[in-house]
Amino acid sequence: TFWNPLRIRDRTETKNNRKEINMKFIKSFGGRENYKPCKLKKDRIGDCVIRAISHGLNQDYKTTFQDLLNISWEMLDLPNSWVCAEEYLKRNGWIKNKPMRNSRNRKLKVHQFPTEGTFLIHTTTHLTCIKDGVLLDTWNCKKSSANSYYTRAVG
């Protein structure tokens, strides 16, 4: 190929000529900051299921927590377990989807998801929420592989 000195490199282009979307990240505790302190490292707890679902359903953290506690009591499991989370999402009209894959049949990373719509994404050990191209979480997990994801049922 001929080297063109006028060629301007696209800012989203990587060295392997793959496009990478710069997804916006907003640090969010899902509303927990209204009830408990969240500023110090010791205040961080394993509540990603509650936080992500609160964002996805547009509801208060305490409401989501209470609903998950009720389901966990029925199922005799912990409120932040995948079993309780899946049941709660199913009851609220969410559908579990298989992982999205690229043209080389590799799972998409969190930052490669579409920029329109709301997605609850399950990575290996985490649940996070993307709303209209914005990642809402306590830490930036955009480079994690998305194992499965949830979307609202249409209709």
> What is the residue-averaged pLDDT?
86
**Helix and strand string, N-terminal first?**
EHHHEEEEE
Discrete helix count: 3
Number of strand elements: 6
Structural class: alpha+beta
Overall shape: it is globular
**Which residues form runs of ≥5 with pLDDT under 50?**
1-17
Q: Gyration radius, to the nearest Å?
A: 18 Å
- Helix share bin: 10-25%
Strand order of the largest sheet: 1-5-4-3-6-2
Largest sheet: 6 strands, mixed
End-to-end CA span = 51 Å
Account of the 3D structure:
With 155 residues, the chain is of the alpha+beta class. The protein has three helices and six strands; from the N terminus they run βαααβββββ. It has helices at residues 48-57, 61-75, 82-91, and strands spanning 24-27, 94-97, 118-122, 127-131, 134-137, 148-152. The protein has a six-stranded mixed β-sheet with strand order 1-5-4-3-6-2, with helices on one face. α1 packs across α2 and α2 packs across α3 (82-91).
Blueprint of the fold:
Elements: E1 24-27, H1 48-57, H2 61-75, H3 82-91, E2 94-97, E3 118-122, E4 127-131, E5 134-137, E6 148-152
Parallel strand pairs: 1-5
Antiparallel strand pairs: 2-6, 3-4, 3-6, 4-5
